[in-house]
Amino acid sequence: MELNVYNIKGEVTDKKVTLNDSIYGIEPNEHVVWLAVKHYLANQRQGTHKTKERSEVSGSRRKLIRQKGSGMARRGDINSPVLVGGGRAFGPRPRKYGFKLNKKEKILARKSALSLKAKNNAIVVIEDFDFDEPKTKQFVELTKNLQLADKKLLFVLPSQNKNVYLSARNLSKVNIVTASDINTYKIMDCVNLVLTESAVGIIDDLLLKA
Question: What is the pLDDT of residues 154-168, one digit of tens each?
């Protein structure tokens, strides 16, 4: 698959980039994509939720009424889950939500996600760029030049760039990642994927040589 390379003014340059068919042209495996997204979201959960159970609630341990003869249900202490102010029965406890996902499945999921974007013509390649200083206005101008304003975008850079990151930080619909940190969730969470020239080669090395 061959794509034109744009500059930051939104103009088509005389350069072209060929996307590797073994990454951007495979038959997407949607189940593995779902697994990878679930894996990412599960690992984001802290799992620190906790409620107090019967033994942890502060209160008297005295038996409220005698066991028999009252004509009512049996009553234990005031910490019983059936009483107001008592402990929670079978409440949540701290736990880990993460699960294991094989390395080959992670790679296949990223390839499938990239292939879905390529299939939908949702990939744009631009020249490597930098800003002299952090300017959100410059970044907004860049998205307008590429005719991608008001769309949810993922910009993939070859390496960390502080000025570019700070310029896009205030834009709710723009995410910035490096090519080595790209993952299935972030690819699927955007409408358009914007790759820099150098990032294309890094992604190839990452997914083909793994």
Answer: 999 999 999 999 999
